[in-house]
Design brief:
Elements: E1 5-11, H1 13-16, H2 23-34, E2 38-45, H3 49-62, E3 65-69, H4 80-88, E4 92-94, H5 96-109, E5 122-124, E6 128-130, E7 139-144, E8 147-152, H6 156-175, E9 180-188, H7 193-199, H8 201-205, E10 211-217, E11 220-229, H9 232-250, E12 254-257, H10 262-272, E13 277-281, H11 287-293, E14 302-307, H12 311-318, H13 322-327, H14 333-346, E15 351-357, E16 371-378, E17 383-389, H15 394-414
Parallel strand pairs: 1-2, 1-3, 3-8, 13-14, 13-15
Antiparallel strand pairs: 4-5, 6-7, 7-8, 9-11, 9-12, 10-11, 15-16, 16-17
Helix pairs in contact: 2-6, 3-4, 10-15
Length: about 425
Amino acid sequence: MKQFKAEIIAVGTELLLGQIANTNAQWLSQHLALHGINVYNHAVVGDNLKRVEDTFKQAQDRSDIIIVTGGLGPTDDDLTREAFQKIANLKIIEHTPAMMKIRSYFEKQKTIMTPNNKKQARVFEGAQVLENKVGMAPGMIITHKQKTWVFLPGVPKEMKQLATDEVFPYLKRVTGHAGIIKSTVLKFAGIGESKLEHELRALINAQSNPTIAPLAQDDGVVIRLTAKEDSSYKVDELLNHTKKQILDRVGSYFYGSDDQTMEQQVVTLLKEQNRKIAAAESITGGKFTDKLISVEGASQVCRGGIVCYDNKVKQNIVGVTRETIENKGPVSEACAVELAAAINDKLDSSIGISFTGEAGPTSASDQPVGTVYIAICTEAGYKQVNRFTFQGDRNSIRDKAALKGFELLLKYLKS
């Protein structure tokens, strides 16, 4: 069976400027995969006729299915039709049903329709016109030199309606339903990308279907498994089998799949163990507690937190001794431990966690920028304190510290 190569092109200078995110390409790729169609290229091009034309020529040469989003609106910088006309030499005509719909809209709104709105009703002669049920400009499907071209509006809700109602069923007929492609993401903490890859080297070297791809991310290391089969059941079987093989090797570092987060896992374990947590946050300034209470049901396990940025707050509110601040310093192992123990006692929790450090850009202590101490103390007498050196700017260091706190808690709660 032929393997179809798909490409997605987004037209719009606003995408290049970063004013809006290209969520259309992400959504289309996910749904094309479910229909067994591999996306090989994503392209974004600004509202320039020559550049759009050049991008279309490249796509025509290398892809079997090209889906274009954007550039079908009423303004002068909507150039998708004009660019494709230059490579296909197709006549552009006015689509009567679309024009009637546009006129009707303005009549109902009791506003005057400006002439440029007629542009939205223009389609290529011979195209399969797709009814836009939530907007103005219709979509189009055209076959040019044995390549399938799909033109869709850039407005996400319009694009999704047309793709779901018209495009995916059409492509299923064209491709003969080439199977289902499905991915799952396995998330790991406390292990680096290189060590994870080393532990899984035999599996990675032998991979075929599913494929195994380790990736480093801000919240740890992930492995993306991607499988292709002719049914959802078979795809799930392949993914589950490979997932078991991976977890047999590195399962102690695993904390969740797909959209699961470390904070969700921490809340789940705290609930299961009937324990409550409190936080004393200096360097993180409430970031840890904010992430914790973003999880549904966190009220059952979170006592609260105190942002103790100033040394007087560390002493007078949380309960760190003046001697520790003066002799050891606010950024120290001793201060971190006292913060964790004191917040645990003050807020009557089972576990206290603390964060203190130097976020920069300059250091206010004898510790270099990036130094962070995180301590965990429990009502049963358990005590753990770790020193870390994080790289990055001020906010990056603070984010990494909060994330590391969840990693340490997860490891403790699973032990």
